[in-house]
Amino acid sequence: MNALWQPRPAAPQAQRRVMRLDDLGAVMAIEQVAYSHPWSRGNFIDSLAAGYLAEVLIAPGDELVGYFVAMVGVDELHLLNISIAPRHQGRGLGRALLAEVQAHGRALRLETLWLEVRASNERARALYRDLGLAEVGLRRGYYPGADRREDAVVMRKALRTTPALDGAPDVD
Ligand SMILES: CC(C)(COP(=O)(O)OP(=O)(O)OC[C@H]1O[C@@H](n2cnc3c(N)ncnc32)[C@H](O)[C@@H]1OP(=O)(O)O)[C@@H](O)C(=O)NCCC(=O)NCCS
């Protein structure tokens, strides 16, 4: 037996639903521990008012364990925030939520998923790469930092690989 092997705790059976204003207490509690520079409550209120795509994950016992916010553009989906409560991280919830974000994009027939991630956030970058997002650019000094600003890595994924053929009549 490998002594280093550690079983990964099973993810709770979380349900997704649309984010509401009365979720923001629980959302902010996660936001403030998940990030060095968290969004403000106002950022979430503005996102909901703007009609952005925003959903929460609710575990049994009505515990809010994660959320995402994404902006729908003409042809693209821009993921603005995705977070899992620290005590539930590393159990597959982030991966599952990101799959749902992509499913929304495809259902809306959007071409591309975009996001920015702090250059130092290796864990999120590895997850995004694993899900097929490519690192396509760098925005220098995009994020505030402890003593100096930090670069953002810009990542993208084509949601529809053959858009020209989508809905096209069959050709012999
Ligand atoms: C980034 C984040 C959303 C990922 O969600 P998660 O539920 O922790 O991720 P998952 O459990 O689905 O893991 C996905 C992958 O992340 C990596 N990962 C997860 N836990 C890890 C850990 N403790 N150490 C290193 N890598 C880890 C693994 O590559 C894992 O792949 P696997 O499923 O093959 O094991 C979550 O960690 C988070 O909220 N972080 C803080 C906020 C943040 O950085 N958001 C992203 C901003 S762009």
Protein architecture, described:
With 172 residues, this protein is an alpha+beta fold. The protein has helices at residues 24-34, 41-49, 93-107, 122-130, and strands at 15-18, 53-59, 63-72, 76-84, 112-118, 134-143, 150-158. The protein has a domain at 15-115: Gcn5-related N-acetyltransferase (GNAT) (Aminopeptidase, 3-Layer(aba) Sandwich), CATH 3.40.630. It is built from 4 helices and 7 strands, in the order βααβββαβαββ. A hairpin with a 3-residue loop joins strand 2 and strand 3. The longest helix has 15 residues, at 93-107. Mean pLDDT is 91; it is low at 165-172. The chain binds coenzyme A. Coenzyme A is lined by residues 34-35, 82-84, 89-95, 117, 121, 123-124, 126-127.
Attribute tags:
Aminopeptidase, disordered C terminus, alpha+beta, 4 helices, binds coenzyme A
Gist of the model:
The chain has a domain of 101 residues: 3-Layer(aba) Sandwich (Aminopeptidase), CATH 3.40.630.
Question: Which small-molecule ligands are present, each listed once?
Answer: coenzyme A
* CATH class descriptor name of the domain at 15-115: Alpha Beta
Uncertain segments are 165-172
CATH architecture annotation of the domain at 15-115: 3-Layer(aba) Sandwich
Under CATH, the topology of the domain at 15-115 is which? Aminopeptidase
Shape: globular
Order of helices and strands: EHHEEEHEHEE
Please report the number of helical segments. Answer: 4
Task: Count all strands and give the number.
Answer: 7
Distance between the termini: 57 Å
Helix content: 25-40%
Major sheet: 7 strands, mixed
| Biggest sheet, spatial arrangement of strands | 1-2-3-4-5-7-6
Mean model confidence by pLDDT? 91
Strand content: 25-35%
Structural class: alpha+beta
Which homologous superfamily in CATH is the superfamily of the domain at 15-115? Answer: Gcn5-related N-acetyltransferase (GNAT)
Radius of gyration: 18 Å
